[in-house]
Design goal:
single chain; 128 residues; 3 helical TM bundles of succinate and fumarate reductases; extended
């Protein structure tokens, strides 16, 4: 029986990484992060309804460096996913689909994410 030599499908190792690919993959990752973060938010709400002991447990889990890091990551994912969603809405209107504009809009999404996250947490620190 002869072995058939079939072509291999293109893989990430064959294609070079490019910026728009990175932004697209990051959009998917932040979507998953938002799903997990929403479960943590639901845990916080349920503990709030369950009573002071349960709420104190969640507060203790979130009032340390790791909990704050998770909250900052959640807000960054939220801002990234929202900005990327606006980018996709523009694409749905058949605008900005050329490569140069796609690169610029991807860079805008990253910059907007950074700025919005920093401004949000500065406002949180000022309010506290």
């Amino acid at each position: 029986m002869a072995q058939v030599q079939r072509p291999l499908s293109p893989h990430v190792q064959i294609y070079g990484w490019y910026f728009t690919m990175f932004v697209s993959i990051l959009n998917r990752i932040t979507g998953q992060g938002l799903a997990i973060g929403t479960l943590l938010f639901a845990w916080w709400l349920i503990s709030l309804a369950a009573g002071p002991e349960s709420f104190a447990t969640v507060q203790a889990a979130m009032h340390n460096w790791f909990g704050v890091l998770i909250l900052i990551g959640y807000t960054a994912a939220l801002f990234f996913h929202a900005a990327s969603g606006v980018r996709h809405l523009v694409w749905d209107a058949a605008r900005g689909l050329d490569l140069e504009t796609a690169k610029k809009s991807g860079a805008f999404v990253l910059v907007a994410t950074g700025v919005l996250t920093v401004v949000f947490w500065l406002l949180v620190l000022i309010a506290a």
